[in-house]
UniProtKB/TrEMBL annotation, chains A, D:
InterPro entries xrefs: ABC3_permease_C, FtsX, FtsX_ECD, FtsX_firmicutes-type, FtsX_proteobact-type
Protein name: Cell division protein FtsX
Gene3D superfamilies, alphabetized: 3.30.70.3040
Domain FtsX extracellular per the UniProt entry, residue ranges: 59-152
UniProt similarity note: Belongs to the ABC-4 integral membrane protein family. FtsX subfamily.
Compartments, as annotated in UniProt: Cell inner membrane; Cell membrane
UniProtKB/TrEMBL annotation, chains B, C:
SUPFAM superfamilies per record: P-loop containing nucleoside triphosphate hydrolases
Protein name from the UniProt record: Cell division ATP-binding protein FtsE
A GO molecular-function annotation: ATP binding
NCBIfam families per the UniProt record, alphabetical: FtsE
SMART domains per record: AAA
Membrane topology: Peripheral membrane protein
Family: Belongs to the ABC transporter superfamily.
Keyword terms of this UniProt record: ATP-binding, Cell cycle, Cell division, Cell membrane, Membrane, Nucleotide-binding
Compartments reported by the entry: Cell membrane
Organism the protein comes from: Ammoniphilus resinae
Broad class of the protein's primary localization: membrane
Functional description taken from the UniProt entry: Part of the ABC transporter FtsEX involved in cellular division.
Gene3D superfamilies found in the cross-reference section: P-loop containing nucleotide triphosphate hydrolases (3.40.50.300)
Domain ABC transporter: 2-227
Length: 297, 228, 228, 297
């Protein structure tokens, strides 16, 4: 193909958008809306996943040391705990601090336990966090067998339940996103097809005048690319602005510190590239698929 | 050169449009195709540039068997023929200039070649004042003339015209006929389906009369008429 | 009765199609409208059934001022006129029978009335064997005849035909003309734009010649021709 | 309009769907997919709302009775609590039972509190639930002023946070659903418009042949109604079957008792009627809107 012909295709492709004014607009707004929905749910799913991660991170193993163990041995135990490759952090809570915390949790009823200081019934305690929360159980079981360890507490049932929930949430999220992405592709391709079917006669005429298939296809390729690409600009802008506003709202105004949203920065780029990519790809794909049906003249 | 050997055409709905056509049109000939409405003239013509495929039989165009043509080669064949369609077949979203220029873009002509040639053709069919009009803004005859200009613009070796004067007044019809005669004198094959008795009887050429899907008469310098 | 008083028509793109038309067509008249391609014949005709509105001037149809007609009353006016369109205007997704029957459904005729009448009309234009064909499966002349059948089916008081024989062979054209003449004798007004010199000169009627958007000649039992 | 004409319109309207085969199919599948998404999120939102309600129901007011109050006075207080119009239930927990529960919550550390039985430091206690959890604070404040009430405990901060979250979830849910509903309407109307624009020439021809606007409109009305209505059948079926499967999965197989889903029965009807209504309504609306543009011939 000659260069000037490529130039002609680019020109024709973009002019087709204005030529078919209303139809292009309808098509692009469908693309825009569908991508917007997809984007919203993508942001939602990513953040839910993030929050699930944060929550999982809270999981910890409480290791109780036997009563009356020497300070040196306790330090050795600390070293051993830190040596586990799966362990991220180890915090030591002396039994005095433990009792203090225990009493604090009773607020104004703390006076009930005044007598306990003399013969502190608690043990020294380590709080262990694993790098990957899923390894908690395995690590806990191994700690249990270390010397001087009296017992290990890691809320076995609670953790199981938590992981069931977070896994479920993640799976549902992925399921939704995949389903939505296919739906979006289908809807976009469908609208673009409808606009092209309306031009089947034009395609037939072009072929009868001697145009090759690729000569006819190129402008449609450009048109699909532009419609999908342009159709993704508005939703991308809306999503980014909306998300920035949401972050501000949640973290500054409402002070909902427990809602730990993903930061705007890498997300913005990823989202933009992804949505524009989907838009452009499906634009081209839908366009090519429907032109093909009318090329057999 | 166009040759048809025992060509039959049955449309998908069962209509037998052509039944055993045998005909040979030499390069440089001028042929009228006449016959009553629904006789099969358009079908006969559509087979030549492969808008329709024959159900049976062989069609040779400049030696190539176009009934066995590969999909990819069809555009080449069509470019060697200029067609004036009975229903014009203009691109509705392109203006007059663009419609004619489209046929040149298809063969990847340069812009420098295209512009003067398109304007020349539109001058020829007296539409230079309608360059920027869209097909929906033209009268029937004007649309027909755009179709004629498009068929001529690439100076094809063969011109196939399906009732090119059906919506033209006698004066304009004669102007078009003079153009056809001139390019025919310069060696272009012209095949023209027509109902215009006056033209056929005045500008005497070979006449192929089709009736009920069969060639009823094939006569050099013949008159209009097909019954027997 | 159709009357135009100083009617001007300028299309949105600036084309002056008609410039000061004054004409009166009495009930029961038979009028040819002739003129070169692009003269304004179709525009003149389109004003009568209000496909186009005049830019200036008054048009009276059976006493009603149709340039001032309310939106709601337009269908009534159109039903009183049978129109043969230059580009046929058949409904592409209805077959021949349905296309003709549609005009009767519009006036809410019973099925009992519709069927025999539609078949009668299709018999008249020799298309009874094409009842179930769709417009895309018809030849140009066959489509034109469907359009004629549809125009006649409601026996309207006025028939307006825009080149109704443009795609018909001479024999079929004459058959159509005989039909028009017959219904005209029974009192129907017929207005017909045509390029067919033979018909105009043989079947002598009133001739209105339009050239460049103006009436160049208006003559009872006139000949074809418009230059002065 | 005559009856036979109405019959004709019904016939034409339904035949148009087959006449425009591919286009009708594209249009209806867009309707179906959009309604399906809407339905999924509707189910999700309703269930989230339901779970939020269940969680809110857990909110209770603990009313502590002054030490050494007579049994008769305590019964009187119980009566008074029950007399509040906003109160749903009142449960009495004698201080002995209270201590038992308290010790139980310490598991194997319960021996710490052996001495407490003799001079039980706890009070008799009422657990009060309000009909509408939002009224908790107001009711608690009023209970505080009743005679013999020592103190009232209703986890003020926790409740505030809970209501912030549940309200937020509800609002986000409603926001999503409303946005999705509008989007669905837009998308459906858009596709239907595209299929009708392709038929503008037909509409123009009908008008030129003398058809009135309403004569042209009726078949399009029927067509829009059918397309929207039929387009909603598949998503309704899928949603109902899917939801039934989900309920089985959650409650029988996974035994996720804490996921309290809404029962299928009234929901199924409501959802079906709603989705079919939306489909039919927008089908008609989109169809009418786009026909209107071409009636001015
Ligand atoms: N696409 C089609 N499908 C089915 N039948 C068709 C199709 N095209 C044409 N026909 C039928 O084939 C026959 C020949 O049609 P054709 O168009 O060749 O006639 P024609 O001689 O050109 O007539 P006209 O002078 O009216 O244009 C007619 O009976 C017509 O109805
Ligand atoms: N919709 C339109 N918009 C703009 N210009 C138009 C439109 N329709 C017709 N014209 C112009 O108005 C003039 C008269 O057109 P009209 O169709 O009335 O001609 P006509 O006499 O019927 O010609 P023909 O014999 O070729 O059918 C022409 O120059 C044409 O280009
Ligand atoms: Mg023909
Ligand atoms: Mg005209």
């Amino acid at each position: 193909m000659k260069v000037r012909t490529m130039g002609r295709h680019l020109r024709e492709g973009s002019r087709n958008i204005t030529r078919n004014g209303w139809m292009s607009f309808a098509s692009m707004s469908s693309v825009a809306i569908t991508l917007f929905i997809l984007g919203v749910f993508l942001l939602l799913a990513l953040n839910v996943n993030h929050i699930a991660n944060v929550v999982e991170r809270q999981v910890e193993i409480r290791v109780f040391v036997k009563q009356g163990v020497e300070k040196v041995e306790v330090d050795k135990l600390a070293e051993k705990l830190k040596d586990f490759s799966q362990v991220e952090s180890v915090t030591f809570i002396p039994k005095e601090e433990g009792l203090e915390n225990f009493k604090k949790s009773f607020g104004d009823k703390a006076y009930w336990f005044e007598g306990l200081e003399k013969e502190n019934p608690l043990s020294d305690e380590f709080v262990v966090k694993t790098k990957d929360p899923v390894e908690t159980e395995m690590v806990a079981e191994r700690i249990k067998n270390l010397p001087y360890v009296e017992s290990v507490n890691y809320a076995k049932d609670m953790i199981k339940k938590l992981f069931t929930i977070t896994t479920m949430i993640r799976n549902v999220g992925i399921g939704f996103i995949v389903a939505l992405a296919f739906t979006a592709m289908f809807l976009i391709a469908n609208t673009i097809k409808l606009t092209i079917v309306a031009r089947r006669r034009e395609i037939e005429i072009m072929k009868l005048v001697g145009a090759t298939n690729s000569f006819i296809r190129w402008p449609f390729f450009i048109e699909g690319l532009l419609m999908g690409g342009l159709g993704s600009v508005v939703p991308i802008l809306l999503l980014l602005l909306g998300y920035r506003y949401l972050i501000d709202l949640v973290q500054v105004d409402l002070n909902l510190y427990f809602l730990d949203l993903l930061p705007l920065n890498p997300l913005a780029w990823q989202l933009s590239v992804l949505l524009m990519g989907i838009g452009a790809f499906i634009g081209v794909w839908g366009s090519m698929m429907s032109v093909r049906r009318f090329l057999k003249v | 050169m166009i040759e048809m050997l025992d060509v039959w055409k049955t449309y998908p709905n069962g209509t037998n449009a052509l039944e055993g056509i045998n005909v040979k049109i030499e390069k440089g000939e001028f042929v009228y195709v006449v016959g009553p409405s629904g006789a099969g003239k358009s079908t006969f013509i559509k087979l030549m540039y492969r808008e329709e495929k024959p159900t049976k039989g062989t069609i040779l165009l400049n030696g190539f068997n176009i009934s066995k043509l590969k999909e990819r080669q069809i555009p080449k064949v069509r470019r060697s023929i200029g067609v004036v369609f009975q229903d014009y077949k203009l691109l509705p979203k392109m203006n007059v200039y663009e419609n004619v220029a489209f046929a040149m873009e298809v063969v990847e002509a340069t812009k420098k070649q295209t512009k003067p040639r398109v304007l020349e053709m539109l001058e020829l069919v007296k539409l230079k004042n309608k360059l920027r009009s869209y097909p929906s803004e033209l009268s029937g005859g004007e649309q027909q003339r755009v179709s004629i200009a498009r068929a001529l613009v690439n100076s094809p070796g063969t011109i196939i015209a399906d009732e090119p004067t059906g919506n033209l007044d006698p004066e304009t019809s004669w102007e078009i006929m003079r153009i056809f005669e001139e390019i025919n004198l310069r060696g272009t094959t012209v095949v023209m389906a027509t109902h215009n008795r006056e033209i056929v009887n005045t500008l005497r050429k070979r006449v192929i009369a089709i009736e009920g899907g069969r060639i009823a008469r094939d006569q050099q310098r013949g008159e209009y008429g097909y019954e027997g």
